[in-house]
Amino acid sequence: DIQMTQSPSSLSASVGDRVTITCRASQGIRNDVGWYQQKPGKAPKRLIYAASSLQSGVPSRFSGSGSGAEFTLTISSLQPEDFATYYCLQHKTYPLTFGPGTKVDIK
Amino acid sequence: EVQLLESGGGLVQPGGSLRLSCAASGFIISNSAMSWVRQAPGKGLEWVSVISADGYTTFYADSVKGRFTISRDTSKDRLYLQMNSLTAEDTALYYCAKGAASTGGFDSWGQGTLVTVSS
Fold this sequence. Notes:
The complex is a heterodimer. By secondary structure, chain A is mainly β. Chain A contains no helices and 11 strands. Helices cover 0% and strands 50% of the residues of chain A. In chain A, strands 2, 4, 5, 6, 9, 10 and 11 form a 7-stranded mixed sheet that branches. The mean pLDDT of chain A is 97. Chain B contains no helices and 11 strands. In chain B, strands 2, 4, 5, 6, 9, 10 and 11 form a 7-stranded mixed sheet that branches. Chain B has a 4-stranded antiparallel sheet with strand order 1-3-8-7, with no helix packed on it. Chain B starts with a strand and ends with a strand. Chains A and B meet through strand 4, strand 5 and strand 10 of A and strand 5 and strand 10 of B.
């Protein structure tokens, strides 16, 4: 099975900050990664697919990069509505695996 | 508009069974792979199972293999998860998720149905 790790597990940031979250796969997964945002009490929502493509309707301050085994999600200027938990997901092979999540909260 | 509505959750005793249902609208489930994803209270997301768009192929997480069965009824656009031999570790919010055919991953999620396994 492919293991996904994320760092950091949590971070505190201020509105306007640039935030970067990293996801690493235990083996190469090409660009078969997506990033999901989950707010408390809500279902996850996809932000990025194919490592770097922005989901329709998602603000352009979100971006993704990487390929192979290391991927990043960047929020260029953190907004109040961005405080949430972020997960990466590999879909190269079954079983699909999520990263453990990164909680972004207010400093 | 794609909508997914889960139902069937509840309180069940250890060793018991439960069948979850997911009603899909706004698309045809036979055109998409469909998955179940769960989230234990206060924990992260765990993929559980998938059924392929053609309905012939299924996969399961090791944690549920042999106990859970995914199925669908294309005439009703419904997805199911039959859960047997439940344990406390199966306590979670269960989401139905639509596979994104051309991009992988999930492009739509339901709001989830809560399963609590406790005596």
